[in-house]
Amino acid sequence: MSDKPVRGSLIGDGLAQVGALALFLLQVLAALPRSLRHFTETIRQIFFVGAMSLIIIMTCGLFIGLVLGLQLYEVLSRFGSTASVGTVVAIALYRELGPVVTALLFAGRAGTSITAEIGLMRATDQLAAMEMMAVDPLAYVVAPRFLAGIIAMPLLASIFNALAIFGAHLVAVSWLGLDNGTFWSNMTGAVDVWTDVMNGVWKSAVFGGVVTLVATFQGYSTAPTSEGVAYATTRTVVYSSILTLAIDFLMTAFLM
Amino acid sequence: MTQRRSHQIGTGLFIVLGFTALGYLATQTTSLANYRQGPTYALKARFTNVGQLKLRAPVKIAGVRIGSVSDIQLEPDRLEALVTLAIDKRYDQLPDDSAAAVFTSGLLGDQYVALKPGGSPDMFKHGDEIILTQSSMQLEELIGKYLVGSGDSQTRKPAAEESPATPESANH
Amino acid sequence: MNADSASSTDALVRIRGLRTRLGAKVIFDGVDLDIPRGRITAIMGPSGTGKTTLLRHMTGQLVPDAGEIVVDGQNLAQLDRNGLFDLRERIGYLFQNSALLTDFSVFENVAFPLRQHARLPEELIRNIVLLKLQAVGLRGAADLMPAELSGGMARRVALARAIVRDPMLLIYDEPFVGLDPIALNQVLKLIRVLNATLGLTSIVVAHELSAVSRVADQIYLIAAGKIAAHGQPQELVRGETDWTRQFFGGEADGPVPFHYPARDYAADLGFTKGRA
Predict the structure, then answer these.
(1) Domain contains C98
(2) Interchain contact, A1 vs C95, CB within 8 Å
(3) Minimal Cα–Cα distance from C178 to chain A, Å?
(4) Which residues of chain A have a CB within 8 Å of the CB of C86?
C-alpha cells in the first residue's frame, strides 16, 4: 500500500529495538507472578533449555580447558611461572570465559530453538488460540522460558567451568607434567569464592535472562511466516550475542 | 503424563549436576578449600621477618601442601613474629629437627611456609616449636645484597642479621 | 432443529456502527450485525473483506476504531483484561489452521483449557476429555501427537478442545478450507449436531456456499466494508443484488473487479495520448 514502513537510520532502528525489548521485559516481569501457576511448564523448559544444551556445553567446556591449558603452559613457561596455570585458567573461566562462552553457546543452541518454537506458535495461531482459551501466552509461554534461562544458565556455566578445569588439568598435569599439588594449591590460594566464582554465577544468571528475553521477544514479535521465523532466529543469535557482551562489559566495569 | 514425568526427572538430574559442579568449583578450587580441613595439630615457629605471609597461607613439604598458617603474632619481648602452623594430622611423622622457611611461590607470587625435613628419630608433637627457621627473603633486600655483595664479596653482615637464629641456613 | 431456541430472539452478539481501518485500508465502514442465540449464523464474503478481523473484534482480540460490540450483554469496550478473559472462557474458537499445541498429545490438547482454568481431579478431566473426543469421533486418537493427524482430524480435535468447557458461543473460522468431501461432511455434521445438542450459538465464517447453505440458519454477506446482504440461504442464492449475484452465482467480474486497480492500460504500455 501507500504507507511504506518508515525507514529510519540504523541508530533509530536500534533504539526502537532496544525500546521494544525493554517494554517486552516489563510485560514479562508483570507476567512472572501469574506464570508461577504454570510452574510445571517452567520445569519442562529448564529441561529443554538446560538439559538439552548439556552436550554442547560440556564438549565446548572440555575443549576450551584443553586449549587454555596448552596456551597458558606455553606462555607462562616463558616467565618460569607455569605453577600459575591452574590459577589463571580458573580465574579466566570463572570471571569471563565461563559465563560469556556459555551464553554465546546458549544463544546458538537454546535461543534459536526458543525463537523458532515461539515463532512457529505465532505462525500457526497457537498463541492466538491460547489468548482465546483465556490463557496469557506471556505467562504461559514466555515467562517460563525466561525463568528457565535464568535458572539454567548459571548451572550450565558451572558445568562448563568444571569441564574446562578438568581439561586444563589434563593438559597441564597429565600431559605436560606440571605437579598436581602445585596446580591445585596455587588455584586454591588465589581464587576467591565471592569475587570470582559467585561473580560468574551472577553474570551468567543475567546472561541467561538476556538471551531468553531476546529469543522469546524475537519469536513473539516475528512476522507469522516461515520467512519471518527464519529471520527472527538469525536476529536472536546476533542481538543476544551483542547484548551479552555489552552487558558483560557494563557488569565488569561497574559491579566488580 | 509419562513424557511430563521424564522431563521432570531430566530437569532434576540437570539441576543436581549443575549444583554439584558449582559446589565443586566453589569449595575445591577456591580458597574455601583451605578453610575446610580435617583434624590438625599446631606447631610454632619464630621468624625475624615473615614478609607478606598471610593467614591461611599454605605450609608445604616438597611442594605438597600439608597444612596452613593459622596465626601470626608479634612476640612483645623478643620482637619476633610467632607463627602458628596448623598441620594436617595425617602428616604426624615430621622429624623434630625439621627447618621452616618463608618462601615465595614464583618470582612475585604469594608466600608460604616450607618445611625441610631433618634426620632426627623423634617426631614433632602438638605445640612443639620449630627451632630452625629462615625468614622471608625480601626482594628489596635481595637486590640490596646483590649490589653490596658485588662491591664487597666479604660482607656477610646483612644476611647474618637477617636470621640470627639459623645462621647456617642463610645462604640457602 | 432449533425449535426450542428459536423463540429466544435476543441477540447474543450485537454489533452497531463498527468502523475499522488497518493501515490505510478501510476494513469496516459502518457494520450492523446481530447474532441470534441458539442459531447458526454464517458470515461470508470475498477474500480480504475482513471476516477474520470481524471475529477478532467479537472476541476482543482487536479493538475497533469506532462502534459498539456487545457480547452476552457485556460491552467489550468496557471490559478489562480479566473481564475479557472471563468472557473468552465461555467462547469456543476454532482456528482456521486448528492451532493445536504441537508439544502436547491430542488428549493433552483437549485437556489444556480444563487444566488451565479448573482444578479438577485427574479422573474427571480424563472423563470429560474422552467424552468430547468421542463426540468428534476421535477417542481412539487420544494418544497421537498433532503432527500425526490429517487436516480434517486436527480440525475435529480443535473442535473438541473448543467445546471442552461447554461454551455459550462457538466460532468457526474457515472450518471447511482444505478438507476432502468426507472430512467436510464430518465437520458439517458436527456443527449441526453440536449446535443442537449443546444449546450453542454458532458463528461460521466461510466462503463455500454449498457447505454453508447446508448448516446456516442465516447468512451475512460482507463486502466493501458493509453488510451487502442478509437473510436465509435460500433467499440470498436467488441473487437479487449485484453482490449476491456475483458471490453466489460465481461470476468472475462484478462489484469485485477482475482487475486489480491500475493505471490506464494504454498509458502503462507506453501509448500516450497524442503521440500515437
Answers:
(1) no
(2) no
(3) 15
(4) 134
Q: How many domains does chain A have?
A: 1
C241 to chain A, closest Cα gap in Å:
30
Q: Is B47 helix (H, G, I), strand (E, B) or coil?
A: strand
Residue A2 lies in a domain: no
Cβ within 8 Å, pair C88-A2? no
Flag whether C195 is in a domain.
yes
Domain that holds residue C155: 103-166
ipTM, two decimals, is: 0.85
Looking at C150, C166, C182, the residue that finishes a domain is C166
Tell me, yes or no, whether A83 lies in a domain.
yes
8 Å CB contact of C96 and A132: no
Q: Which three cell numbers stand for residue A152?
A: 539454567
Residues C186 and C260 in one domain: yes
CATH of the domain at C27: 3.40.50.300
Per-residue pLDDT of chain A (256 residues; tens, 9 = 90+): 344 445 557 788 888 888 999 999 999 999 999 888 888 889 999 999 999 999 999 999 999 999 999 999 999 999 888 888 999 999 999 999 999 999 999 999 999 999 999 999 999 989 999 988 989 999 999 999 999 999 999 999 999 999 999 999 999 999 998 888 888 878 887 888 888 899 999 999 999 999 999 999 999 999 888 899 999 999 999 999 999 999 999 999 987 6
> Which C residues 121-160 touch A at CB under 8 Å?
none
Do B123 and B96 contact (CB within 8 A), yes or no?
yes
Of A124, A126, A134, the CB nearest to C85: A134
> Cβ distance A161 to A62 under 8 Å?
no
Instruction: Tell me the three cell numbers of residue A160.
Output: 562448563
End of a domain among C117, C138, C166?
Answer: C166
Closest-approach residue (CA) in chain A for B19? A155
Cα Dmax for chain A: 74
